[in-house]
Design goal:
Blueprint (H helix, E strand, L loop, with lengths): L3 E6 L1 H6 L5 E5 L3 H11 L3 H7 L1 E4 L2 E3 L10 E5 L6
Parallel strand pairs: 1-5
Antiparallel strand pairs: 1-2, 3-4, 3-5
């Protein structure tokens, strides 16, 4: 089975989900997660272009494998624009 991970939304990412703070997804890595996020919340597409993902509070720059109960934060750039 695919690992169930918890996604936490911050700032504009939270606005794009209609105010959701967290949500669970079954995905194997961060690339798959990005696809699942946009499918679930089309408004996240533009946010994700510039957002950083942090897995268990560690920024991940490249594709990162996810494990059961990992926590992934979607962190948009802090400044507006």
């Amino acid at each position: 089975a695919m690992p169930a991970v918890t996604v936490l939304y911050f700032a504009r990412a939270r606005e794009a989900t209609g105010g959701l703070v967290e949500e669970t997804f079954d995905v194997v890595d961060t690339d798959e997660l990005r696809v699942a996020l946009v499918k679930q919340h089309p408004g996240l597409e533009t946010v994700l272009r510039s957002a950083v993902l942090a897995v268990n509070q560690e920024y991940c720059v490249e594709t990162t494998a996810l494990r059961e109960r990992d926590e992934v934060a979607v962190i948009p750039p802090i400044s507006g624009g």
